[in-house]
Amino acid sequence: MGLLFMRNNLRYRSLGLAVVCVSLTTSCSFNVFDPIDSPSGDAQLQSAARACLDEGDYECAARLYGEMSDGYSDVANSEEAFLLLDQNGLGMTGIMEAIGEDDSSGGQVINALVERIYKSGITTSREDIFKALIKANSINQNELRGLVRMMGSLALLAQLLHETKQNLTTENFLKTDIVSNAATCITGELAGCLAGCTARLAAGNYVDFDTATELNGGPTLYMIQALVLQLDKALGSTELNGGGKFSSGTLSFAETLKSAEYGPDTSPGCYSYLLISNGLGRN
Fold this sequence. Notes:
single chain; about 280 residues; mainly alpha; about 55% helix; about 0% strand; elongated
């Protein structure tokens, strides 16, 4: 499934249908949003759940997805993930719009999503966004798993960084939200960042979103790094196999941080320098 296709289809339900067709290797009919009074069987449950989504009835959709059989588990898990993200204002439309604004740096995409949360006024739920991300671990179809992982990772990065935002007088997410002395930090060489950059976030404890079942405590650099690794996995060769603007932007951002000499535990200041020097935070 091409990434260009995803960017041109901003409504996640249409995209979900296309991916499901690929994953189930069947022909599909797309007139499935008719409400059904008493749905039975996976096809009717799926149709009724999507009708609930179109009406904005998320509780109804979640209940119907939960009634689907194991054979439709990829469909249910992916669309439940999209539902959770959409409830928090970070569904397909928001994420694809952020990517469309500027993916010359993956950091700029994340900035746009942090600012989207701030401007929307939506009370987002870190727990729900986390649940959406880890739905990817239960999906078998590679591209669909990668899509859920990518969207969940970007959304959770935005949520965690939104929680760290210091300057509430501007909608912009700033470099000073990541390091307290951004002006002197960004002008230094990486070798000097040990003394030159003061990180806002502590390193924290190691996190692995492939196995994590909860995400408690304040945002940490290890949480940020773990989500960067999730992005790298989602856009890598075994899942979405990112190319084009993704390759030069978000994937490049993830790969740079993945292979960095300095990790969160080695030096929070140096790791924070890497974040801002790769586009995270505005001047």
